Amino acid sequence: YAMLLSLIFLIVLVAAVVGFVFRHEIKSNFESNLNLALEDYNVTADRHSEAVDTIQRTLHCCGVQNYSDWERTEYFSQKGIPRSCCKSQNDCLEKDLKDPNKAKLKVFVDGCFSLVTSTMESKMSIVAGISFGIACFQLIGIILACCLSRYITNNQYEMV
């Protein structure tokens, strides 16, 4: 049992170190995937388009760096900026969303990449605290399992 807990502890420790060391690569990978999701965005309900819409609605953002990122997509030439970028769903007309100057007044102008990364970084202390607490419980479990194993081993020699 102690060996199993030690193995799990080491796996979690290695995952945390790898995540910390490669955090910049994770950010750049996320940014490139978000750009790809914008390029492939369409009105059919695929997972990537739904994810982009959810991020934009939830964080009140639009595009990767800002709302003008949508101008480089195929979707913009057909329908303009997506409705998930609108500040008010009642005030967003398709003709306004096709005109970047009018759309600037009706959509969120901040990009999603900076908001997602800042949200993740702000929650990192909570994640680190919970992880530290779990690691402490695992270490206590390892120590107690070793003590129990030693106690059982010592009692067997006394009985013989």
From TrEMBL:
Places the protein is found: Membrane
Record carries keyword NADP: no
InterPro entries registered for this protein in UniProt: Tetraspanin/Peripherin, Tetraspanin_EC2_sf, TSN6/7_LEL
Keyword set, alphabetical order: Glycoprotein, Membrane, Signal, Transmembrane, Transmembrane helix
Span of the signal peptide: 1-19
Entry's transmembrane regions: 126-152
Pfam families to which the protein is assigned, alphabetical: Tetraspanin
Highest taxon above the source species: Eukaryota
Membrane topology, record value: Multi-pass membrane protein
GO cellular component: plasma membrane
Annotated PANTHER family: TETRASPANIN (PTHR19282), TETRASPANIN-6 (PTHR19282:SF169)
Function: May be involved in cell proliferation and cell motility.
Name this protein carries in UniProt: Tetraspanin-7
Organism field: Cephalopterus ornatus
Gene name as annotated: Tspan6
